[in-house]
Every structure is written in C-alpha cells, then in structure tokens.
Amino acid sequence: MSTPRMFFAAMPPPAVRMAIEAAAREYGVLDALGRSLFAPDNWHQSLSERIFAPNDAQIDQLRAVGAAVRAHATTVAYTRIDSAANLSGRIHVTLRAGSDTAFKPLLGAVQQQLQLAGLGAIATGVTPHVTLSYDAPALLPTVRLPEPVRWSIDELLLVIGHGHGDAYRYDVLGRWPLLPERDPPLTQMGLF
C-alpha cells in the first residue's frame, strides 16, 4: 500500500483523455508502454507538490487555499511526448506543452495562495505536462504531434492519491471552478 499523497491538480475531461490516448496510440507509445501505462483515469496536470499522509488539519488548510485561488481558466496546447530517466533510473514518459505561457498565471495564483498559507514548500514550479508512465520499460524517441492536444483547464482540484498498482486512484477532496478564460483560443466557426 502506498502512502496517500495530497496535491492540487486538474484532471482532463473524457474528450481530452481520449485525444491523448489517440495520439499515444497513433505513434506507438501505448504499445511501447504496455502494462507500464499509468491508468488514463489518473492522468492529471499537477499544480503543486504533494503532502504525504495528510492529516485532517492539512486537508482543511488546503481546502481553504483552494477556495481562495482566483485564477482564470486557461487552454494549454500539449505538443510532444518524450521520455527521460529520473535520478532513481525510472523512466517517465510525458506529454508536454510547447509553451508554459498560458499555464503560468494559473500556476502563479495557486503558488501565491499556498505561500500566503505558509505552504511554500509545496508551491514549487511544475511545468505543463501529463505523465503517461512513471516506470516505462525503455526510453522512447520523442514524438512531435502535428496537431497539439488542447485542454481548457477550467477547474482546480484538491486530490488525494492512494492504493497500489492497478488499484491506485485519485479521490477529489475539493473542486473549485476557475474564472472564465481571458483569451480563449480561436476556433473555426462551422460553415453554413
């Protein structure tokens, strides 16, 4: 059984999750990962570091932080899938954004409220990414997606991860809608 870990995150809606899966399948990433694929229902965008084995007071404190965050929704364009070994030698395979410009204001708003609450230790700089595997069998060649996977992050979640192996999952402890997006991406109107 792994130690429960609590953090702020966003989780992709089903349509975005399916788009990520389709891109990973098309370029052979799903086949290469096999059973090392992190369960798609657990894919997420981190917005803070973790508190391990949180107590009730810490949960309440982070719920208050979540309620205090005032940030606009943002659309992130994920443009590539790459892999790298971490310090312990485990290979992570990750969907990454081409730029963090759209992501920075949201992350900054979360970091600011964490710091005001005295939780600067978990207000660290995460990048816009979704980890597809935390323990891949081998490094994979980088895949540059011809069309980015776009995800409009419109809510902040406080989640706790627990379980082990295939039973690992995230439970939502708090959910806060974000303000409307300031500069939504342009979409082509249907032709009449």
Structure description:
The protein has about 190 residues and is α+β, with helices and mostly antiparallel strands. About 25% of the residues lie in helices and about 35% in strands. It has 4 helices and 9 strands; from the N terminus they run βααββαββαββββ. The protein has helices at about 15-25, 30-35, 55-70, 105-115, and strands spanning about 1-10, 45, 50, 75-85, 90-95, 130-135, 145-155, 155-165, 170-175. Strands 1, 2, 3, 8 and 9 form a 5-stranded antiparallel sheet that branches. A hairpin with a 5-residue loop joins strand 4 and strand 5. The longest helix has 13 residues, at about 15-25. The protein is globular, with a radius of gyration of 17 Å. Residues about 185-190 have low confidence and may be disordered.
